[in-house]
């Protein structure tokens, strides 16, 4: 489809260079963000209904861990081949393939679940991981390609709102599907009526129908209109030549400050977001159900469930990332300070959560303890997930002139490597049954990020190109080399 959208909404002149932004950029951002959210929702299909799977299909908690493990494995294996291919086929074709693979994942699941073929379900998760390699690596590419310097971090926050989809899955799983289970029903699963077990099986299948519908919508949105780039660049930095794939990889591998930032981002983020789909398992010992029911025939939509805690934490943290990024756009050279403050607060909140789960902090009133879990989980998620766009932007600045997609690909790959280790630990029966270690791991990850951020030197090479356009290419290359 020809790129014939609305004319530019703004322009900036610098000698022979004219920066332009186009109204159509908001459609591009909407489609990209929607696709990312859908793939994240598909990723989080199984953990929110872990108890329903245990009753309806006889599958243990480790089944959900295997599904997430297959997703992470696909991302690790596929990210760099996919990024190398996108260099040749363009962003549009990469997005079309990404959404098509997500549709294929849903189709495989719809075949595998009624047949109870867990290998097909695992294959579907692997396919979704392959599709997600595109959307997880391109948020800063979308923002840099289409948005001006003053909008870039805000656009990155919207492009990287995949965790909003993970939050939707918390809600869709237990409530839309009807796959509703309480902690007491898990304990007494052998005495439950057959009709209730059948209802759970149908409910889980309903989840897959819902996810399939979302993937098809995302595919058609991408087909309708999603060009690789605008006719004219929105900033001077976008016109600057990027290093090709292999030289760029070599540059990143030797960039110590980039790796300090990468570890500071991935340790808390990967571990916390690997834990939160299993918060129903972690909070079960505190008397918090996946879903609270009055009867098997009527829903009691009280938000006193671990699913609602996970949903609220991811939803609010994703939405708050937009105003956080908007503020960061006004303080372009203070991004490291933002991250240090956020990580320090995340460390404190995760420590309190761990102490509550350990029993060192006891709250006698059950309703009050639920409220505290809400506040702590939402606060920790906001400090970790709400600042993801700032990590992406600072990583792109440190890596420049390496292409933004390659920098984000490295961030994503390491994130999933840590996730794989986490999910492998869940396959150990002793660790799967005792979830207390998960929260303490989050505490340790946040603590390790403190010195990494402290010793990391922040550089704004890309921003320098935009704000000091009089600098010659030779002078610039001397600075970044």
From TrEMBL:
Q: Which residues cross the membrane?
A: 26-43, 63-83, 95-113, 154-176, 207-226, 308-328, 337-356, 368-394, 406-431, 437-455
The keyword Transmembrane is assigned to this record: yes
Q: InterPro entries given for it?
A: FLVCR1-2_SLC49-like, MFS, MFS_trans_sf
Gene3D superfamilies per record: MFS general substrate transporter like domains
Provide a Gene Ontology MF annotation, just one: transmembrane transporter activity
Principal place of residence: membrane
Cellular-component GO terms for this entry: membrane
Pfam families named in the record: MFS_1
Record bears the keyword Transport:
no
Q: Which UniProt keywords apply?
A: Membrane, Transmembrane, Transmembrane helix
Phylogenetic placement of the source organism: Eukaryota, Metazoa, Spiralia, Lophotrochozoa, Bryozoa
Q: Spell out the protein name for this chain.
A: DIRC2
Topology versus the membrane = Multi-pass membrane protein
Q: Which residues form the signal peptide?
A: none
Q: Where in the cell is it found?
A: Membrane
Q: Which PANTHER family match?
A: MAJOR FACILITATOR SUPERFAMILY PROTEIN-RELATED, SOLUTE CARRIER FAMILY 49 MEMBER 4
